[in-house]
Design a protein that fits this description.
With about 325 residues, the chain is α/β, with parallel strands linked by helices. Helix content is about 35%, strand content about 25%. The model has no long low-confidence stretch (mean pLDDT about 95).
Length: about 325
């Protein structure tokens, strides 16, 4: 058995900055309303014809590989987490393999929405522990702005979700290095319809029809109150699970990197854990919720800001559609 560790992280976000005031021109909302409920001040939306899920992921991946000192031929496998692939099929993993000119390595797609990156990280950890692979590219990337209902009906989700990509290189740890200590994965499908997008569906009479479009089935639907109530419970549970499993306490954590779902959720968790500001990383204020992209983007930015130091104990936690939730404990 080998230990695995994150060798480096990278990210890319589109150039277009969308402010709350701009959103207020599209729907009945305001800067004050959005900031009070989500903490978001601005977010990034893609530019059609320039940004794709694939090329954003490639830019994030190249940054991570450069920082890790890893060459193209060193990557053994790709794990790509997204719920907004460029194509209905094939998955985005093979598109990234083509975009970056990798040899004919395997590519696996993960569709666990906001928890997708931690699920992908857990899969990479298992592959490396067994010795099957030595260096794996783990990516979380989304373009969500093109699928948002930007009318008054969809404002509760349209003000939250955004676009961007993050990537990490996971590799075999050297002797004496700890790296990824444990991962913890959960789901509860009885709440699937609290946060979902029903179309296109293979189970419907038609995948695309005028009726589906007029009914708004292609738009994300979210019961914000239900998501918030479950999120604050599951976030705490899965963080405490990781601590208990490893016989640690909250005081051992050097940095908590939560999925950037809502700043109010992160602040609630921080308060419950009694963690000082310097031990929690948030960037949702400026980037919005990029779903599978939030944690790898946050890791990359935290490293840039000097908030990730060698041997720091890092706790990752996420909750989202499914419902699914997850945590990971690791040494940087």
């Amino acid at each position: 058995m080998y230990n695995s560790r994150i060798l480096a992280a990278g990210h890319y976000v589109p150039e277009r900055i969308v402010t709350n005031d701009e959103l207020s021109q599209m729907m009945n909302t305001s800067n004050e309303w959005i900031v009070e409920r989500t903490g978001i001040q601005e977010r990034r939306w893609y530019t059609p014809g320039i940004d794709t899920v694939t090329n954003m992921a490639a830019k994030a991946s190249k940054m991570a590989m450069d920082r890790a000192g890893v060459q193209q031929d060193d990557i053994d496998f790709i794990i790509f987490a997204t719920i907004t692939p460029d194509y209905f099929l094939p998955g985005n993993g093979v598109l990234l393999q083509r975009e970056m000119g990798f040899k004919t390595i395997g590519a696996l797609d993960i569709r666990n929405a906001c928890s997708g990156f931690i699920y992908a990280l857990s899969v990479a950890d298992q592959f490396i522990k067994t010795g099957m692979y030595q260096k794996i590219l783990v990516v979380g990337a989304e373009i969500q702005s093109s699928a948002l209902d930007k009318s008054d009906d969809g404002r509760s989700s349209a003000v939250i979700f955004a676009d961007g990509a993050g990537a990490v290189v996971v590799g075999r740890a050297e002797a004496g290095q700890t790296g990824i200590i444990s991962t913890h994965l959960h789901s509860e499908g009885s709440h699937a319809e609290e946060l979902y997008c029903i179309a296109p569906s293979s189970s419907g009479k038609e995948r695309i029809s005028k009726e589906l479009i007029e009914r708004g089935d292609f738009f994300l639907k979210m019961n914000g109150n239900a998501v918030f109530k479950h999120a604050v419970v599951r976030f705490m549970e899965v963080i405490q699970e990781a601590l208990a499993f490893n016989q640690m306490t909250k005081d051992d954590i050097d940095l908590l990197v939560p999925h950037q779902a809502n700043l109010r959720i992160s602040q609630y968790i921080q308060q419950k854990l009694e963690l000082p500001d310097q031990k929690v990383f948030n960037n949702i204020m400026h980037l919005g919720n990029t779903t599978a992209g939030t944690i790898p983007i946050a890791l990359s930015q935290a490293w840039e800001q000097g908030r990730l130091k060698e041997n720091d104990l890092i706790c990752l936690a996420a909750f989202g559609s499914g419902f699914s939730w997850a945590s990971a404990m690791l040494r940087w």
